[in-house]
């Protein structure tokens, strides 16, 4: 298999210029940001020693910042899906490190992105407006019903990535009264 510099998406950026190049480069940025974030999580999980420190929290925060860098106007479109997952996982990591208030802030951010994703799903065409990606036009999946009620599913999806074992964290965070308040807001 070819390396990243010989993949279709990258070659499209090399073979074009002007607005077409801007579009392909923007699409490549969005696509690779999603893939990079997911691989970063898998790398954290595969090295259990990471979880003996604040490293996982900092890395997940960095992955979130990557989306903020690309979508610097807050118009995340389809990327809201990855941000939901990252914030759910971050909340679990924060709870483990006794950052309980921050964990609930991350849950609120996951809820925000879930509602934004629901709005994205309702559109037929989505235009990104951040300078780096303003030439990208996106459409929801052909079967948006699979994403229906994203916010309602958040409590069941938490913490999204389930490694390492999170059962002790789950009992603790769900015992906090703020959990029930947050779950109620996911149903609104």
Major beta sheet summary: 2 strands, antiparallel
Number of helical stretches of at least 4 residues: 8
Oligomer: single chain
Strand order of the largest sheet: 1-2
Average the pLDDT over all residues and give the rounded result.
89
If you had to describe this structure to a student in words, what would you say it looks like?
The protein has helices at residues 8-14, 18-46, 55-70, 80-96, 100-121, 150-157, 167-175, 177-186; strands spanning 126-127, 137-138. The longest helix is centred in the first third of the chain and has 29 residues, at 18-46. A two-stranded antiparallel ribbon has the order 1-2. The protein has one domain (4-186). The mean pLDDT is 89. The protein is an all-alpha fold.
Keywords summarizing the entry:
188 residues; mainly alpha; two-stranded antiparallel ribbon
Provide a quick synopsis of the model.
By secondary structure, the chain is an all-alpha fold. Helices cover 63% and strands 2% of the residues.
């Amino acid at each position: 298999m070819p390396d990243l510099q010989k993949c279709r998406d990258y070659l499209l950026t090399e073979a074009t210029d002007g607005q077409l190049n801007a579009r392909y480069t923007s699409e490549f940025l969005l696509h690779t940001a999603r893939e990079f974030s997911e691989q970063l999580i898998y790398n954290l999980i595969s090295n259990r020693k990471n979880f003996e420190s604040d490293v996982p929290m900092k890395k997940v925060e960095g992955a979130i910042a990557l989306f903020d860098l690309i979508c610097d106007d807050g118009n995340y479109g389809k990327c809201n899906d990855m941000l939901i997952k990252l914030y759910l996982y971050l909340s679990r990591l924060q709870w483990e490190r006794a950052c309980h208030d921050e964990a609930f802030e991350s849950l609120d951010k996951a809820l925000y992105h879930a509602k934004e994703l629901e709005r994205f799903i309702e559109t037929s065409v989505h235009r990104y407006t951040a300078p780096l990606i303003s030439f990208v036009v996106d459409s929801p999946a052909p079967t948006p019903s699979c994403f229906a009620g994203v916010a309602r599913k958040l409590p069941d999806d938490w913490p999204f990535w389930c490694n390492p074992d999170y059962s002790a964290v789950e009992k603790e965070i769900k015992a906090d009264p703020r959990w029930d308040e947050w779950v109620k807001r996911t149903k609104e």
